[in-house]
Predict the structure.
Amino acid sequence: MTIRRRILKFHIAAFSGLLAWAMPALGADIAVIVSRDASSQTLNEGTLRDIYLKKIFLDGTGHKFIPLNLPADAPLREAFSRALFHQGTDQLQDYWNQNYFHGITPPYVLGSQDAVVRFVAQTPGAIGYVASCYVNPSVRQVLSLPLSAEAGVEATALCPPGVGE
């Protein structure tokens, strides 16, 4: 291998490492959070999808899941819907319209990411999502979803100045 090639590989590796380190600090992912005191069961995207579609109601210890959403016009909600369901909020509304008549209601809606963090921290069984910069010691991040480019959300727009610093 030539020296040029080695230098190029080094620069690519260094840049990738720097990018991986910097992205969470910029709020470049969606943090799925539960209470700090919640049971430490594992959570994957399939399970999270079933919790949010209200196909799973209880965790392994018998506590009721309380999934939370942000308002329909919140950019992070669109990003979450695209990352987890590969659909926008409009398509998911059709799902809820159909299931409403079967007695299945959509997740509760809270007005801000701060409200989601506070509610999750104080409510057993609550599960929500916020930009990673909102995660604090009162909650525990159980899953990270990538911020999809198709959601059209700038990572920096999700974390206002002063949040997560």
About this structure: The first strand starts at residue 29 and ends at 35. The longest helix spans residues 3-25. Strands lie at 29-35, 66-69, 108-109, 126-131, 139-146. Confidence is low (pLDDT under 50) at residues 7-27.
